[in-house]
Structure formats: C-alpha cells, structure tokens
Amino acid sequence: MRVGWGNRHEDADPVWVLAPHDLAIGLEIFGALGQPEAAVAQWRQGGAIHLSGVLRGDGWWQTLEVSGRSTERKRSVELFCDDGVAVLGDGWDEHVTIYRDDADGVREERIETPGELPLLAELRAFVEHLEGGPPPRSSAAEGAAIVTAIAALRLWRRDRRDELDPHLPARGADPILGPQRPRPGRRHGGGFRRR
C-alpha cells in the first residue's frame, strides 16, 4: 500500500508515481511480475488518482493500492504466506514483523533489517555499475515490464468503465498518458517542446 494526499509531480498522476515502487517490491519478492487480473480506479481531470489492482503469478497474487487521495500517508508491504504474515509497516522501518498462529493466539517476531535507504542503495549500485562494477539488481527490461503492467491495470479500468462515470478520460483520449499538459519550455509551432 502506498497512499497519501496530493501529487508533487505535474507531468504524471499519482498512479504513475506510486505504483512502480510496489510492483518492483513484488518483483523482488516473487522473482516475477504478475499478470494484471482486475483493477478499479478513480479518475479526476483525466488522471488516475487512485488505483486498486490485482496481479496473479504462478501460485501467488499481489494486490496493489496506490492513491493520491488518502488522508493518511502510508507506505507498507504485507506478505501473506501459508504459515503467517510478514509486515514492513512503513517505508522508514528498519525491521519486519512476522505474525504466526500460536496455541495462545498470535505470535509476533521482529526481525531487524538495518541498512541504508533502498533508493540510496539503488542509486549507489547504479553509479558503481557505471564505474565498471556489477549490474544493478533491476534491468531496463524489468522496468519496461512494470510500466506495461501499470498501463494494463489502467486500461483494465477504462475498458470496463461505467459509462455514467464523468471523471474517466473520453474514449478518444489517451488512457495511459492522460491529458497532455504543456510543460515550461520554448514555444514551437503552436505547441511546446522540452528542452
């Protein structure tokens, strides 16, 4: 789950900003990216501001909830397994909590996971690769697969939309990119181009 209020990015809606993180975590845990199976979204001014989706893999599934319309800021990962549940309660936590059934109820075990922040570690690995080190854990192909999965979840909602929902993009609009917003730059032929 990756939810909060608003979006600081003018060029992408909250779904594009937040969903890649959770899908990358799923890829790391399962070793594969699931196939989109279902999704619902809330649209506002041509952009998706909330998405709940389900992806299914070989013997596993991943749920995804990302939103720029939650009054609570939350970043968490829960892994539901046969013998219990593993929880990373917040993106800043340096521990994972394991919950298991016990004769007296629920047994809780805390596993410390100290280390550097994930984004910092990822950037460090990339710079080291540019300097001749080993390649980063994630490849460009995996990044493209994540973008494709998000696009499929967005299309899932659009293809099965309620015709009465006035907040969805028009049928002729681009459901993946949303409305094309001019960005600051030099005027060129009646439009804008990036520098």
Structural overview:
The protein has a single domain, classed as Dihydrodipicolinate Reductase, domain 2 (2-Layer Sandwich). The chain is 26% helix and 36% strand. It is built from 3 helices and 11 strands; from the N terminus they run E-H-E-E-E-E-E-E-E-E-H-H-E-E. The chain has helices at residues 14-30, 118-130, 140-159; strands spanning 2-5, 35-44, 47-56, 61-67, 69-75, 77-81, 84-88, 95-102, 105-112, 186-188, 191-193. It has a 5-stranded mixed sheet, with helices on one face. Helix 1 crosses helix 3 (140-159).
Task: Describe the SSE topology.
Layout: E1 2-5, H1 14-30, E2 35-44, E3 47-56, E4 61-67, E5 69-75, E6 77-81, E7 84-88, E8 95-102, E9 105-112, H2 118-130, H3 140-159, E10 186-188, E11 191-193
Parallel strand pairs: 1-4
Antiparallel strand pairs: 1-5, 2-3, 3-4, 6-7, 7-8, 8-9, 10-11
Mean pLDDT rating? 83
Low-confidence region ranges: 161-166, 179-195
CATH-assigned fold name? Dihydrodipicolinate Reductase, domain 2
What's the alpha carbon Rg, rounded to whole Å? 19 Å
Largest sheet: 5 strands, mixed
Q: What series of H and E elements makes up the topology?
A: EHEEEEEEEEHHEE
Tally of strands: 11
Strand order of the largest sheet: 2-3-4-1-5
Please give the CATH architecture: 2-Layer Sandwich
Shape: globular
Tally of individual domains: 1
Percent in strands: 35-45%
Structural class: alpha+beta
Total of DSSP H or I helical runs spanning 4+ residues: 3
Considering the chains and any ligands shown, give keywords for the structure.
Dihydrodipicolinate Reductase, domain 2; 5-stranded mixed sheet
